[in-house]
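Progress against Task 2.4 (sequence-to-structure conversion) is shown through the following example record, which the project officer requested during the mid-term review.
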Amino acid sequence: MGINDAFDQLQAEVNADIDQVKLARERRDTFKKAMSGEEDVLETFGSGSLSRSTQLKPIHDVDIVVVYHAAAHPDWGAPGDSAGEALDHAGDQIHRLLGQTYGTVAQEVRLAVPRNHAVKCFLDDKDEEEAFTVDVMPALRQSDGTLLIPEKLNRCWVPADPEYLIRKVAEHQGAWEHFRPLVRVLKDWRHSAPVQGRIKSLVVEVLALECMPKEGSRAEGLKTFFTAAAARVNEGVSDPAGLCGEVQPDLDYDGLSDAFADAADLAERACAAAAASDTDGALRLWQDIFGDGFPAPAKPASKITGTPALVAPRPIKDAPQG
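Structure tokens generated for the chain above:
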């Protein structure tokens, strides 16, 4: 098996099933259509990883933004109770339009719960492990094109620009066809990275925007990414639009930097092996990074004992995707 074929197989392991993607988009579009028909709604659009085509399987949720006419809600945007009121208003509309029993547009929503920034809508029983949800975030459009979104816990509105990330991902993909697919691969890899605590998928996506090249093979692109990200992550990872601050304040930056550095070393050796026509060796090194989802031939038997050769523990272990 060649290097490209192996990466194709890894990609197939990571990508969501096309029927699952189609269903998620249909559910998202049902919400957009329903909310767009309201008199006080200016526009709706999808946000989150599905809208950027960087989603992993299984798809448990989608996100939409509902932009309201500021004139229809003159108190919104000011500090105080208006943040919670906006979420309650959106929740009432969702119940009326999409409630499972009496929804006038569709009967989809079992439960709609206002959270800090958005209304979480459960389309399945909320106690199910893989219950599908739609997060509906109310917003106001500002004169510079960015948004104000409610922050219920702090009784205020904060600036945000989710469309900026959507644009930047699309631009990078337009320059290099492997960008979105490799972002998905890296998001899957993060589950097995030896760090303390979790790594938000947005952390990986922001680093990919900054550290992934816009040309070359997938192997060379990943080598470049791991090498650059090992240093870059130490500077902190913030909202690329420059509005929302640090993406994950509790991130184990040192652990993630070390994980990137270990992967960079393996990727460097894999690319060198491939350049020396040692395809099997290169495949085994990529498997050391990505786990058993990356196909590689078995280790050669020991010439002394006839048993499989001892192999140093992989710095990055495979784990089920969350």
